[in-house]
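Q: Convert this sequence to structure tokens.
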Amino acid sequence: MRRTPEPELMDDNAQAHAYALADFDEPHARFVALLGAQFSDLDRECRMLDLGCGAADIMIRVAHAYPRCCIDGVDGAGAMLRYGRDAVANAGLGPRLNLVHGYLPGVILPATDYDAVISNSLLHHLKSPRDLWQAIAQFGRRGAAVFVMDLLRPVTREEVAALVSEYAGNEPEILRRDFFNSLCAAYRPDEVRRQLAETGLEHLAVEQASDRHLIVYGVLG
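A:
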């Protein structure tokens, strides 16, 4: 199945509201578990960057898992960030979590030497995947931990429909539609490896992490 791009931003308020209320406990908890499995030394003082932080759920989970980390999150969708700021305030994590409205490329962030750079489900939204990999290289310091999780494009549209039915069958129609479109817009592992080679990050590992996710991880040289 050929890749079908989708819009970069989820800036519609109804869409943002649906995402803020959706149950992403399983994939987001898995993100944190896989992050910890690859990097055992994150439980220290570190400054982390979350690219495409959305409504901040993963930022909050990572902050709870690593109480000495401070995290800057950036997202281009103002509607998502409004829900994110409320979630951060409700979690009492305002002093450690900072949300920035900005776009890749060209975003201005508080630092350029982060100890770790993470991202979840941003890659398939970007018009150019190069924007993500170049931002990671730009903002992470030498030796920074890199961990990216994104959707994995199935081989057929029938597989896409089956995954939507299995994992979003009880969700509102707007979420089922977006999940279908996102799976169609996602990349295959070999495609991601080519992207990394084109941006000088070929040393990062790419693995399939589930029936609908892949991960990219390693350290910046």
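The chain has a mean pLDDT of 94.
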